[in-house]
Amino acid sequence: MLVPPTRPTGPADLLAAAVRRDPAAPLVTWYDDATGARVELSATTLANWVSKTANLLQEEFDTAPGSTVAVALPVHWQTTAVLLGVWSCGAAVLDTAVEDDGRLADADVVLAAQDRLPPLEEQDLPELLGLSLHPLGMGMTGYAGPARDFALEVRGHGDVFTPWQPVDPARPGLLAGGAQFSLGELVRTAEELAARLGLVAGDRVLVDERAATEAGPVAWLLAPLAAGASLVLVHDAASAQLQSRAEAERVTATLGTKLDGIRELGHPV
């Protein structure tokens, strides 16, 4: 007798489904047009980063259901690992793309891009981790402040993650713009949004960073994962290169930009 699949309890289950579906296929590809950098992660590689991040948060900061982790990061391949790492712990993400930095004091841990650290160091924050956002995940350079270096801290943690407490889908999962979504609601919302946008399994979605920042992680990360799609994230997009890049990456849909011959998903509300 066939056993029906278990209902996802949180966003991390969407990544687990991607690993089961095709572990070696590209899942997240990231470009920085300002530097020419390109990084590609398979589902297995991203899951490895997520596990290390979740182990770091759990073992060093006791991150668990009921914890709040502020994420002051741009749309980036490392941001996907951080977000999914937080949700793997069953904790809530405070999305600072739509929140004032003054709310960061409400978080148990703050993960921030290196260029955002100086003003944060002046606040009474509980725990502060800095990310260089180096294409290859290297540590911060030229930094002498009090923040711990995410890249150096995460390396020593395990490749397999087991939460100390069960993930509760009713617990908060995302705090953004005055709204709150539980972990279970994030999955349902992502599934509903994917259907509304017409995302389908096998889609390759090119994501413009500016549109993604406005739309939020449910739109740019979770909806594609829920649909079984993969991502091409573009930082500082050079518009003249997008069409040829989309063709080279076999992009089938776009979020936040219009390209000839490729369907545009539009701007989710």
Task: Give a description of the structure.
- The protein is an alpha/beta fold and 269 residues long.
- The chain has a single domain (12-264), classed as Rossmann fold (3-Layer(aba) Sandwich).
- It is 35% helix and 22% strand.
- The protein contains nine helices and 13 strands.
- It has helices at 12-21, 43-61, 77-88, 117-121, 150-154, 183-197, 209-215, 217-227, 239-248, and strands at residues 26-32, 37-42, 68-72, 92-95, 109-113, 128-131, 148-149, 172-176, 179-182, 204-208, 230-235, 253-255, 263-264.
- Strands 7-6-5-3-4-8-9 form a seven-stranded mixed beta sheet. It has a six-stranded mixed beta sheet with strand order 2-1-11-10-12-13.
- Helix 4 links the parallel strand 5 and strand 6.
- Helix 2 crosses helix 3 and helix 6 (183-197) crosses helix 8.
- InterPro entries: ANL_N_sf, Rv3268.
